[in-house]
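Lecture 7, part 2: worked example. A protein chain together with 2-acetamido-2-deoxy-beta-D-glucopyranose.
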Amino acid sequence: MKILLLPGGVLAALLLLILPAFYTPFAHASPSVLSEWNAPKPRHLPLLKSALQRPTSNEKQTDLWTPLDDQGWRPCDESSKPPLSLPEKSEGYLQVFLDGGLNQQRMGICDAVAVAKILNATLVIPHFEVNPVWQDSSSFMDIFDVDHFINVLKDDISIVKELPDDFSWSTREYYAIAIRATRIKMAPVHASANWYLENVSPVLQSYGYCCGFPILSPPVL
Ligand SMILES: *[C@@H]1O[C@H](CO)[C@@H](O)[C@H](O)[C@H]1NC(C)=O
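Predicted complex, written out as structure tokens:
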């Protein structure tokens, strides 16, 4: 396992050291069988020759590294819109309980971030359900770097590690035993930002809190 962590150069050097030692005994044992190994022949010799002979002028090299035509696409960071910033006030807390495998949970996190942004909500670090297949009880903090997550998103949404004590009633069990008003109903596929504003904002405004399981289909902005 350790060898995989070595930089490429070190690995290549190691291989060079190991390879001759590895092949020499075989070469002595049966030179005819292994002669191909000793003198590998390029399969496409004419191609190789012409490639080596082709002059590479500086002009051609410059061409090679020139960015392709943008075809009208623009990087999103060159948007003419003013940069988004944190809302003046949070509308409340958004909590999500995510099940499924790591990839599903990752998508659930992305959805939750987008929805928190749309709603001006404060996102609570997502809660991962115990995975029923692998019995994996890893939490968000076990898998992801929480401080990094909070920090990279600090200009977009507020994130807290835990709900304030006022909401300590809001546990997984609370939602398991009854239908609760603070639970967001599943969004339709391709729900627009307006769907969230119309359906989830009122819950957030009434309770200062809402919750999704997992949340929602990806919002289309
Ligand atoms: C979110 O905050 C922005 C800026 O403070 C405000 O313009 C917008 O109306 C707010 N949206 C909601 C859903 O509260």
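The radius of gyration is 28 Å. The mean pLDDT is 77. Keep this in mind for problem set question 3.
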